[in-house]
UniProtKB/TrEMBL annotation, chains A, B:
GO CC terms, sorted: mitochondrion; nucleus
Intracellular or extracellular location(s): Cytoplasm
UniProt source species: Glossina austeni (Savannah tsetse fly)
Chain segments annotated as transmembrane: none
Name of the protein in question: DJ-1_PfpI domain-containing protein
GO biological process, one term: glycolate biosynthetic process
């Protein structure tokens, strides 16, 4: 059939900005290296050594994390060539998210405990945020970086920040249903999808996750890059 | 420290609609069953036997799929209690998506080849769509279901449909950069984020993935349910 090769050709030569920009050899190497989860972790550890601390971010998530709030920031920041590490809160095993998606993290949080990051990102998801709130190790991880890194939380994520006394008195937003639990600790902002107060960035939920991620691109890189990525992604409410 | 238990309590009792609605015993059972990827596959096979064909969907994806276009439809449809199966195009092994996220599929496409689905969903991602376009098995999977199921493709996904002659002459949209490859085969629509023509649903890219998924909820369930989910997710451009 002639039609199939024709469209295969179209896909092969789909020279849009959605394409990865690595050259053939690099991609071949990356494919081999990333062939399975074990090797992926090794790759992340290697990346952790090459000193790109300022343009880097770690997304920490545990069982029950909101999958869209893990994946949207990871994808958007990687498009801005920010080195994103997905770190499992409890270990480096596959994580079952709140709606059943299973994501293989790059590493365990402890594997990057001595690494600096431009941003630390907390997706929502009740069970994951509860485990964060109850984890002393996670609290130490945050406190050690509170001065130097952006700390960004979405949905019910700000509850885990409050549990570790991060940013007391600052302006925040969150998933609206947890407002009452936060307003004694923070200045709560109702009418903004993303709130930035110094190094603290907060956002409301899955429907604001693109804007949350683009704000992080803006802060870690620049506004122009965030605008270009919004255009590529067809996100039309970022400005 | 008093603050941590306080916020742990708040998270535990976060009684929003974001919560899973299973009771304790069911959740305990589900947790044990879903403890690892192998068991997850077994779970999906069990679900495949219980006859919920009409309120079900399969998302088929291969290496290089656009992760947000896999995860957003999966999460949104599961919130509408649609039984969503994530099927690997080539096998049931973890799939590395285009920006490096590794997702464990529920099963291999061939594990559900005799099952009926309300919708078949094709995320974008050049490499994944190319593999779909070149796969006879995938073409057979689509053609067998063309009359009875919704077929939904986003981003460059419609190229894989065209490669298998699905819906010739119908109205479609896609990621704008692939328009020229599609307009000889379809009636191309530029100015709509989601296009429905009979059983064929198409959409533009990551930034339209929520609307694409909500349209599928509307078609598989009803408009009211889609509106409620949009509200829970804080997606404010669905109407």
């Amino acid at each position: 059939m002639i039609i199939k090769p024709m469209f295969s050709y179209a896909i092969r030569h789909f020279s849009s900005s959605m394409q990865q920009q690595n050259n053939y050899k690099t991609r071949l190497w990356a494919r081999k290296l990333l062939a399975n989860a074990e090797l992926s972790r090794f790759y992340s550890k290697k990346k952790a050594l090459n000193g790109k601390e300022l343009k880097s971010a770690v997304i920490i998530f545990g069982k029950g994390a909101e999958e869209m709030e893990v994946v949207i920031p990871a994808d958007v920041l990687r498009r801005a060539k920010i080195d994103v590490v997905l770190a499992g809160l409890c270990d480096n095993k596959p994580v079952e998210c709140t709606k059943g998606l299973i994501i293989v993290p790059d590493c365990h949080m402890k594997d990057v405990e001595n690494r600096k990051f431009g941003a630390i990102i907390l997706p929502g998801g009740q069970e994951s945020n509860l485990a964060m709130a109850e984890s002393d190790k996670f609290g130490e991880f945050l406190k050690k970086r509170e001065e130097e890194s952006y700390i960004a939380a979405i949905c019910s994520g700000p509850l885990a920040l409050a549990a570790h006394c991060i940013g007391k008195g600052k302006c925040v937003t969150s998933y609206p249903k947890v407002k009452s639990d936060l307003e004694s600790f923070y200045k709560y902002v109702d009418d903004e999808k993303v709130v930035v107060d110094g190094k603290l960035i907060t956002s409301q939920g899955p429907g604001t996750a693109f804007l949350f991620a683009l704000k992080l691109v803006e802060l870690l890189k620049d506004k122009q890059e965030a605008k270009e990525i919004a255009k590529i992604l067809l996100v039309d409410d970022y400005c």
